[in-house]
Design goal:
The chain contains 24 helices and ten strands. By secondary structure, it is mainly α. It is elongated, with a radius of gyration of 44 Å.
Length: 506
């Protein structure tokens, strides 16, 4: 067989294909080398770009229209948290929707000149706020919060509100221009001051705790709360229900004006507070819940129980309050000023101006206890003990200058005028002996406080009553030394017996 009779090989027959295959393989190899060499840099650069775009500094300085919000963010408690952590929903979908699509849409609107012509929807869902590492709902619900003296419960507001209104985090924590996500009381006032500022204190006590009100130093509210007197008697509210005006709708809907009359209240709330997270005050405006203190000219508008109050205590004496209410006004004795409201303005000298200038004075009407002790009349079950000159001299025999306050030196002079000078010393002895016995009894009171014996408690209460009569007498034994001594001896006897019972039960 001749050499030229051999068949050509496969390479010769398909040489063109082999050449193109080698070229394509070489090109693909070059492309792969370039891609794998550059891709990491592209990925790193892309990640760095998106990460930078999510930083507050990028939003504040690159997006100049975000500058006011960035400044408010700098003043808030959220400073240091990346914008995307709140404004993007958790997960990859939230990242694509917020950082990628959201930024692209806003950039397009700005470049095309349409930015701001329609409302920019910037919804903050509860998913971002209520994450485990942030404000977990279980932690919020388990305790009450105090803000500016008002008690707030998240669990009570997580439910559906009247009118199918469902609150979100941003309903109360609004994007204020000065402090980002600041809690605004104006939102609270929208619901809580509508029809709640009148009537009994129960309405006000839904926010203001009774124990907090009782701590107010300027005025004692305990009696007011006990009598359930209306707060509006003294506190006049200057707030009113804020109606949504069309001008506020036009702030956002100015490209295609919407007429709010075309929608019902529930429809408007659904669009703005359920479908989106528009701040309540964006539509309703700022409401001020201001209660000015204006006391009624008629004290009995608030102090209703005073109408029937027959007696009260004044300087350890029973004071006929009802009798005085008929002849003098409240402000004759009590202050009506805000700082000293209700405090007594008068003293003993004021009483003497009326009662010690009368021609016929029955001292026993006001000084019933001194009268009973001086004349040896029975007190607290103890038969009276007649003293020296009992029922033979009256009060004016010793108390000559009725328009002036009592003076011990003057009393001693009166004693010496009828008796010998030694009676001046008797006055000192009677008073010192009385005070010494009172001191012993008071010591027993302190020791008996820790006891839980019911019989001992009753004895202590009876002894305290006897001691009250001696103090209310005011003379420290001078009016009737023997009778005062017997009363104190009886009180000491009761306290001694109480101490024995307490020690025996331990």
């Amino acid at each position: 067989m001749f050499l030229f009779d051999r068949k050509p090989g496969i390479f010769k027959r398909h040489r063109a294909l082999f050449i193109w295959g080698i070229i394509i393989l070489f090109v693909v190899l070059i492309v792969l080398i370039v891609v794998f060499a550059i891709l990491p840099f592209v990925m790193v650069a892309g990640y760095a770009g998106f990460t930078m775009a999510e930083t507050p500094e990028f939003c504040g300085y690159v997006c100049h229209n975000m500058k006011p919000y960035y400044d408010s963010y700098e003043n808030s408690s959220h400073k240091g948290i990346r914008c995307a952590e709140c404004h993007n929903e958790p997960g990859l979908l939230g990242f694509l929707k917020g950082t990628v699509l959201g930024a692209a849409k806003e950039s397009y609107l700005y470049i095309s000149g349409n930015y701001g012509k329609e409302p920019i929807v910037c919804d903050l869902t509860g998913k971002s706020c209520l994450r485990e590492e942030c404000h977990k709902i279980e932690r919020l619900n388990e305790k009450e919060f105090i803000y500016e003296g008002i008690t707030f419960s998240h669990s009570a507001h997580n439910k559906e509100m009247p009118g199918n209104l469902k609150l979100k985090c941003t309903s109360c924590h609004a994007s204020d221009s000065l402090v980002h996500m600041k809690l605004t009381l104006s939102t609270c006032y929208l619901c809580h001051t509508d029809g709640m500022v009148k009537g009994t204190p129960e309405n006000c006590l839904t926010c203001h705790k009774a124990e907090d009100i009782e701590k107010i130093k300027e005025f004692d509210h305990k009696g007011i709360l006990k009598d359930k007197t209306s707060c509006s008697n003294c506190h006049k509210s200057s707030n009113g229900k804020e109606e949504v005006k069309q001008e506020r709708c036009n702030l956002c809907h100015h490209l295609k004006p919407e007429r709010k009359e075309e929608y019902t209240g529930p429809e408007l709330h659904k669009v703005h507070t359920i479908d989106h997270t528009v701040d309540c005050v964006m539509c309703h405006g700022i409401i001020v819940h201001d209660f000015k203190i204006t006391f009624s000219e008629n004290c009995l508008d608030c102090h209703k129980t005073i109408k029937t109050l027959k007696t009260t205590r004044y300087r350890n004496r029973s004071f006929p309050h009802l009798r005085h209410k008929k002849v003098v006004k409240c402000d004759y004795c009590h202050s009506k000023k805000k700082e000293t409201h209700g405090q007594l303005l008068i003293g003993s000298s004021s009483c003497r101006k009326c009662h010690h200038t009368q021609k016929k004075i029955e001292c026993s009407k006001c000084h019933s206890i001194p009268n009973r002790i001086q004349n040896g009349l029975s007190i607290a079950g103890i038969s009276g003990v007649e003293g020296y000159k009992t029922n033979t001299i009256d009060c004016k025999a010793c108390h000559k200058k009725l328009t002036e306050a009592n003076s011990l030196s003057r009393i001693k002079e009166r004693c010496a005028k009828c008796h010998e000078d030694e009676y001046k010393d008797f006055v000192n002895e009677w008073q010192s002996q009385t005070l010494e016995t009172i001191k012993e009894i008071e010591k027993n009171f302190k020791e008996a406080k820790a006891g839980k014996n019911s019989k001992a408690k009753k004895l202590i209460k009876e002894a305290q009553k006897l001691l009250y009569y001696v103090r209310a007498d005011g003379s420290k034994g001078v009016h009737n030394p023997d009778y005062v001594e017997e009363i104190l001896d009886k009180a000491k006897e009761k306290t001694d017996e109480a101490l024995k019972l307490i020690k025996g039960s331990e």
